[in-house]
Amino acid sequence: TAALLEHADMTGAPRTLLDLGGESMTNIDRFTCSDSSIATAVAESCNTVIGYGALQVGQDALHRVARTYFGVDSRNGAEVQTTSALDVSTGMDGRLTRGGLARTAIGQQEVRATTLGVATFGEVIAASANGKTALKPRLVVGVCDDGTLRRRRSENLAPKRVDREVARKMLAAMGRGARGG
């Protein structure tokens, strides 16, 4: 998403091996991606293309996009301080090496997330593709005293929604990945 929002030039993205200066990144089983587009990278889980995109975008922009659109590195709506079921952290507090940035982009390195936290990313893309802002998930502890659930006011997950066309491209790519990537 950051590569699309930042208009990263992906024409030189390697489809098999990404040279990170002293280390390298490959795709699982060293497969070669069909092409170097972001849509294909998401659909086929092309580590090399996604890592390259992160290098083109840079750490500051990648972190800014993660915070601005996906609520990363902020505590989400849990009412109990001891739970971290919705927390997501990029680990981008300090400066990363080229390899560290590429690994962060594919969800490795210092990235920490839960299933529910990552599911909110899909919600951001789906809501944005429909011109809406995703609501912040909220854990509600306890039960209703009279058996009736009373709705609580929800907050927006992040300050901004993703550009609608970028979100539609990402949603289509995610669908391709789910169907056969």
Please summarize what this structure is.
The chain has helices at residues 2-5, 38-44, 47-57, 59-70, 98-105, 115-129, 164-180; strands spanning 17-19, 24-26, 77-78, 88-89, 112-113, 138-139. It has 181 residues and is mainly alpha-helical.
| SSE series | HEEHHHEEHEHEH
What gyration radius follows from the Cα positions, in whole Å? 18 Å
Q: Give the biggest beta sheet.
A: 2 strands, antiparallel
Q: Assign an overall shape.
A: globular
How are strands sequenced across the largest beta sheet? 1-2
Number of helices: 7
Give helix % range. 40-55%
* Mean of all residue-level pLDDT scores: 83
Structural class: mainly alpha
Number of strands: 6
List low-pLDDT spans: 77-86
Span between termini:
18 Å
Strand content: 5-15%
What does this protein look like?
This protein is about 40% helix and about 10% strand. The protein contains seven helices and six strands; from the N terminus they run H-E-E-H-H-H-E-E-H-E-H-E-H. A two-stranded antiparallel ribbon has the order 1-2. The longest helix is centred in the last third of the chain and has 17 residues, at about 165-180. The model is unreliable at about 75-85 (pLDDT under 50).
Give the tags.
single chain, 181 residues, mainly alpha, two-stranded antiparallel ribbon, two-stranded parallel sheet, 6 strands
Layout of SSEs?
Blueprint: H1 2-5, E1 17-19, E2 24-26, H2 38-44, H3 47-57, H4 59-70, E3 77-78, E4 88-89, H5 98-105, E5 112-113, H6 115-129, E6 138-139, H7 164-180
Parallel strand pairs: 3-6
Antiparallel strand pairs: 1-2, 4-5
